[in-house]
């Protein structure tokens, strides 16, 4: 697909016949041209021809494509090294908030991910053709982006002249800008939508030298699938990675590619994370409904065939011994699969099966093992991500293979020996009696979620391991690009995220499910959020994350992400004498957690919360209350002081 539908210097544009310009745009358009779009283009051409009779320099670009968000900018005007982004609303009588956010989103996307825009000034302009005049100003919304200029069809030229009188820049080659490398890092929701529309993962993911290319991971998995198919082998692959490295994106990409591969081979993306499943299914359905006008119920049914809850897949297999339709199964967050005791208890209570004694990894492998010829399981594994009782971790998968499926081929990366995956088992213990091969591309080493800094996940690990000097150095290395602030005033935290989020960048409050003494501040974790509305609905909906009223816990947000977060810290994780102390609140008092597995779950809960923000976060640590024995200042001061010592700025 061409980056733009039309490119010309303004002198040629002014004299070129309208039909000729329209013909060039139509030829580049990969979709059916509807009358509404055609008429809008004609009016845009005529308006800009009038403008450029008074502006005799620069280049005009129509319908410039931004793959990450699946949108096209109506027009881009490049002149004197400045970049004007033009969003037209033909026939509009007002400058709507949604239209303003739309052009802000374009500017943010280019500034963050488009190489030639990094050091250029971007001027977003909303042109509501019939709206009244609005005063021009030249304030910066953020570094490199001006506040949106609001114009009508009669004063566009005055807006150009006003900005050009205020700013100048080194000239640039327009073609260099048009074909600049574009290295986006989409949210998992944006990625799922783009893949579902038919974009390649290379269109929507970064491709720099410092990160393992997601394409390489996909290629490695596809090679394993083809080998398994051709040689009638059964294989299980483990894709590991730091938080936000793109494991779920890699899994969705593989599922999308193999889902359509051939009629004898079906692929399915499975997750035990119900909020993630619900949000992705709804996001795909909404997007397809808006793009194609297909009924929402039909779109949702189609999305549910692509992404399913792993427990439903498991339960469907209980009543039969036949092989499933799918030959390729992708299990997201495989470390959260249930232990034997957890699944046996569930089967006894919910299914009336007192004779069931398999762990979830063992049973899931047995389901795919029913195929007589070949099958492939792909496990997406996050280190240190087990957050609930009964979650088996990676070790259970290896034990299950060793116990009953030793003929399966195992593929791993060398990084799988990290203690966050292995719980300190040796390599010899881990791989004893397994047929395994090492494939480096199965580990995603760099966080893509935090596109502004590669050190965020390392910093969070250092914080949770109380490695003060390491944390201090890591924080110093990233603080300019990825702000992490500290406050003891929740109102200030809310004001901070609201002031930093631009356009439709999403923000919200998160806290651990055990943070039960934050309720005096309106942070009530016992009140369950509706994940779909919280993550997908806009800023007009009081149930959305934007209102900063409902709090998401680690169970709601694992696998998903926000641009900006308020992380609320309670007394369930206290720091004293350079060691964390772990508590749960039961009844009316705190009780010390002594069970090592439950300690791990609580630590991982905070790991999840602290790695959800793509662009920055503020940590709220209450001051405590001497009059309330459940919220004594001593419970909170240790972690507050630790953050101060590693350098976090307090507001």
Give an overview of the whole structure:
- The chain has 651 residues and is α/β, with parallel strands linked by helices.
- It folds into three domains: 6-178, Trna Endonuclease, Chain: A, domain 1 (3-Layer(aba) Sandwich), CATH 3.40.1350; 235-278 and 307-444, Rossmann fold; 456-650, no CATH class.
- The chain has 25 helices and 25 strands.
- β22 (579-586) and β23 form a beta hairpin.
- α9 (214-231) packs across α10.
Structure summary:
With 651 residues, the chain is an alpha/beta fold. Helix content is 40%, strand content 20%.
Task: Give keywords.
651 residues; alpha/beta; Trna Endonuclease, Chain: A, domain 1; Rossmann fold; 3 domains; eight-stranded parallel sheet; six-stranded mixed sheet; 25 helices; 25 strands; 40% helix
Mean pLDDT comes to 88
Low-confidence region ranges: 207-212
Structural class: alpha/beta
Report the count of strand segments.
Answer: 25
Distance between the termini: 47 Å
Characterize the overall form.
globular
The domain tally reads: 3
List the helices and strands and how they pair.
Elements: E1 6-9, H1 10-15, H2 18-28, H3 35-52, E2 59-66, E3 71-79, E4 82-89, H4 97-113, E5 122-128, E6 140-142, E7 145-146, E8 149-151, H5 156-166, H6 174-178, H7 188-197, H8 201-204, H9 214-231, E9 234-241, H10 247-259, E10 266-271, H11 274-292, H12 296-306, E11 307-309, H13 310-318, E12 326-332, H14 340-350, H15 360-368, E13 375-382, H16 394-404, E14 409-412, H17 419-422, H18 427-431, E15 435-438, E16 443-444, H19 456-464, H20 468-478, E17 484-487, H21 490-500, E18 507-511, H22 531-536, E19 551-552, H23 554-557, E20 562-568, E21 573-576, E22 579-586, E23 589-592, H24 596-610, E24 613-620, H25 633-646, E25 649-650
Parallel strand pairs: 4-5, 5-8, 9-13, 9-14, 9-16, 10-11, 10-12, 12-13, 14-15, 17-24, 17-25, 18-19, 18-20, 20-24
Antiparallel strand pairs: 1-2, 2-3, 3-4, 6-7, 21-22, 22-23
Helix pairs in contact: 7-10, 7-11, 9-10, 11-12, 19-20
């Amino acid at each position: 697909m061409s980056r733009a539908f039309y490119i010309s210097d303004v002198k040629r544009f002014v004299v070129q016949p309208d039909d000729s310009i329209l013909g060039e745009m139509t030829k580049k358009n990969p979709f059916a041209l509807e009358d509404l779009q055609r008429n809008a283009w004609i009016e845009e051409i005529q308006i800009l021809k009038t403008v450029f009779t008074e502006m005799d320099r620069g280049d005009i670009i129509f319908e410039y494509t931004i793959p990450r968000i699946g949108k096209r900018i109506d027009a881009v005007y490049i002149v004197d090294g400045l970049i004007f982004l033009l969003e037209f609303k033909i026939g509009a009588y007002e400058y709507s908030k949604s239209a303003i956010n739309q052009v802000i989103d374009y500017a943010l996307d280019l500034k963050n991910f488009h190489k030639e825009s990094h050091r250029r000034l971007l001027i977003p302009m909303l042109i509501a053709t019939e709206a009244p005049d609005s005063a021009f100003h030249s304030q910066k919304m953020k570094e490199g982006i001006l506040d949106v200029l609001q114009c009508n069809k009669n004063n566009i030229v005055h807006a150009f002249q006003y900005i050009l009188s205020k700013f100048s820049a080194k000239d640039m080659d327009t073609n260099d800008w048009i074909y600049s490398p574009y290295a986006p890092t989409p949210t998992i929701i944006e990625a799922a939508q783009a893949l579902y529309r038919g974009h390649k993962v290379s269109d929507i993911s970064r491709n720099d030298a410092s990160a393992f290319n997601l394409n390489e991971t996909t290629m490695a998995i596809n090679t394993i699938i083809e080998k398994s198919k051709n040689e009638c082998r059964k294989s299980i692959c483990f894709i590991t990675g730091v938080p936000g490295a793109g494991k779920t994106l890699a899994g969705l990409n593989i599922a999308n590619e193999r889902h359509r591969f051939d009629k004898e081979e079906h692929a399915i993306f499975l997750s035990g994370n119900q909020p993630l499943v619900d949000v992705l299914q709804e996001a795909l359905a909404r997007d397809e409904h808006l793009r194609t006008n297909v009924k929402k119920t039909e779109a949702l049914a189609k999305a549910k065939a692509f992404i399913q809850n792993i427990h439903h897949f498991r339960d469907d297999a209980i009543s039969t011994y036949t092989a499933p339709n799918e030959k390729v199964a992708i299990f997201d967050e495989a470390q959260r699969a249930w232990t034997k005791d957890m699944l046996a208890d569930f089967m006894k209570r919910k299914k009336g099966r007192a004779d069931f004694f398999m762990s979830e990894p063992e049973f899931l492998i047995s389901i795919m093992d029913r195929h007589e010829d070949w099958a492939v399981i792909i496990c997406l594994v996050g280190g240190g991500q087990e957050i609930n009782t009964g979650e088996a971790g990676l070790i259970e998968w290896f034990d299950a293979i060793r116990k009953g499926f030793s003929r399966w081929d195992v593929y791993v990366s060398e990084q799988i020996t990290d203690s966050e995956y292995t719980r300190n088992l040796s390599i010899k213990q881990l791989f004893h009696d397994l047929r395994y091969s090492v494939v480096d591309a199965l580990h995603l080493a760099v966080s893509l979620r935090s596109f502004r800094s590669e050190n965020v996940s390392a910093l969070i690990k250092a914080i949770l391991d109380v490695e003060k000097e390491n944390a201090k150095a890591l924080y110093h290395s990233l603080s300019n690009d990825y702000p992490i602030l500290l406050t003891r005033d929740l109102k200030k935290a809310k004001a901070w995220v609201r002031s930093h989020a631009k356009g439709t960048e999403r923000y919200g409050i998160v806290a651990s499910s055990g943070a039960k003494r934050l309720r005096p501040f309106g942070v009530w974790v016992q009140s369950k959020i509706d994940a779909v509305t919280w993550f997908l609905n806009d800023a007009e909906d009081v149930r959305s994350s934007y209102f900063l009223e409902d709090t998401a816990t680690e169970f709601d947000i694992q696998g998903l992400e926000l641009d900006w977060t308020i992380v609320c810290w309670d007394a369930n994780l206290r720091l004293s004498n350079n060691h964390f102390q772990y508590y749960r609140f039961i009844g009316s008092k705190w009780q010390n957690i002594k069970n090592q597995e439950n300690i791990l779950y609580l630590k991982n809960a905070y790991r999840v919360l602290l790695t959800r923000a793509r662009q920055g976060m503020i940590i709220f640590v209450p001051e405590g209350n001497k009059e309330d024995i459940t919220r004594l200042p001593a419970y909170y001061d240790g972690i507050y002081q630790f953050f101060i010592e590693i350098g976090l700025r307090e507001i």
